[in-house]
Every structure is written in C-alpha cells, then in structure tokens.
C-alpha cells in the first residue's frame, strides 16, 4: 500500500524513480505485481460489496 500511495503523489513521470532489486540484490527493470486476496476480503467484510449504479 505504501508504494501505491507514494507513486500516486508523483506529479510527472519524469520525476518518478524506482529502484527494483531481485533476490540477489541485482537491479531489475520489472517486478511482479502482487495482490493479496485477504486485503480485498477484509475490505468487503468491513464496508460491504461495491454499489452498482445503473
């Protein structure tokens, strides 16, 4: 969540810099997007299902 918040506050692509390291601490150009189902499950249980507007 912290990464999302940090990236969402950037005002231009030019000013965004990320350092991505693999398991061996080598610099990489990409990473895996990990989404934990438990997070969405807790949100669903806390605030309920999304409202559908027609």
From TrEMBL:
It comes from the Eukaryota. This is Replication A1-like protein, putative. It comes from Medicago truncatula.
């Amino acid at each position: 969540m912290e990464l999302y918040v940090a990236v969402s506050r950037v005002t231009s692509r030019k000013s965004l810099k990320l350092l991505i390291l693999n398991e061996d601490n080598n610099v990489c150009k990409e990473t895996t997007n990990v989404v934990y189902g438990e997070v969405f499950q807790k949100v669903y249980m806390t605030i309920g299902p999304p409202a559908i507007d027609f």
